[in-house]
Amino acid sequence: MKLLKGDHKRDFEIGTFFVRGEYRYSLEPFYGKLPDFLRFTPFSGGCCDKEDNLFLVTRDWQHPVVMLDKDGNYVRDFGKGLFQNLHTLCVTEENTLLCVDSDRHVVREIDVYGGLIRDIGQLDTPSDSGHDGAVWQKMQRSGELIATDIRFNSDWAFVEGLKTIKRAAEPFNRPTGVSISPKGDIFVSDGYCNAAVHKFSKNGELLMTWGGPGNEPGKFVIPHGIWVDKFCRVWVADREGNSVHIFSEEGELLGYMKEGLYQPSDLWSDGTYVYIGERGGQITMIDMDLNIVSQLGFYNSPLRTHGICGTASGELILMPLHSYDGIYLMKLKPL
What is the value of pTM for the model shown? Predict the structure, then answer.
């Protein structure tokens, strides 16, 4: 008898390429040189600083922020004790980090060693958007819900809770994303239990709020990701609304995309294109004239994305979160 054995190294050695027209990328599915205690830690979001150091956020309260250098080597982790459910972050001109904690209803600014600088929002105090997080328990007690599967009930309750949101409330009720404009203003998507975008001054003063619940241009189901481009236009990825909204910095609706998206979750721009990372397995590229230039991937492709950011050389860093078992950080390199 001849015993045949497959090659377990093939996942690390076989190339995967995404090509559409002139846009060609290779995928590195197991990016980053992480210590053993972080090897199986999912990352939900990230950003790069001017030196292409990569800052990643985890759902691990002991190691909430992880820093890798430009070559993907682990540098350190920090922020223990500051966060409950860190969702994403962005780097400021002062090389500090604005960190969105969904469960603590706050954006916390920290230095790159984990020192707390300030809070934007009221820590542990959700705003009144009308959201009723207990809708599942109420229906279960009334006998309207008889399913017993925990995951089904949890997902169902999440969706039903979204239907109870009545207004675009003040900051925050489970915020989701943050971005800084070229002028220094701070924009926050407030999405899991609100349906709003907030604009703050650099010093954290609330300047305006817009949005509201709905699945139409200018309204949101879950404003999940946000990016402010070089023209100070505010891009919002509405994941459950399966849409992308483009606003002026004063909240005027300038553009809207609904067709051909697979759950847009996060956004990043290199100044030439805005890249829309989609949880369903696609990356949509839009130029500064608001033209779609390419869509890479396909439904359920390896490009399933919860968070996206990029480097100065145009490499894209993808964070699938729980989309793939065993793959938590990927790099997409232009060819």
Answer: 0.94
Distance between CA atoms of 321 and 40, rounded to whole angstroms? 11
Same-domain check for residues 207 and 160: no
Total tally of structural domains belonging to the chain: 2
Q: Which of 29-33, 87-91, 209-213, 232-236 shows the lowest mean pLDDT across its residues?
A: 29-33
Q: For residue 8, is it within any domain? A: no
In 3-state terms, what secondary structure has residue 64?
coil
* Range list of H helices, the chain: 10-13, 135-142, 150-162
Half-sphere exposure of 334 (CA within 13 A, CB side): 11
Residue 178 makes CB contacts below 8 A (sequence gap 6+) with 88, 89, 90, 98, 100, 107, 186, 187, 188, 189, 226
**25-39, 100-114, 204-218, 313-327: least confidently modelled range:** 313-327
Domain range for 153: 131-164
Give every CB contact of residue 169 below 8 A, 6+ residues apart in sequence: 127, 128, 129, 130, 190, 194, 196, 209
pLDDT exceeds 80 at position 156: no
Q: 2 CB contacts (<8 Å, ≥6 apart)? A: none
- Are 92 and 146 in the same domain? no
CA–CA dist 21, 228 (Å, integer): 27
Q: What is the pLDDT of residues 186-231, one digit of tens each?
A: 999 999 999 999 999 999 999 999 999 999 999 999 999 999 999 9
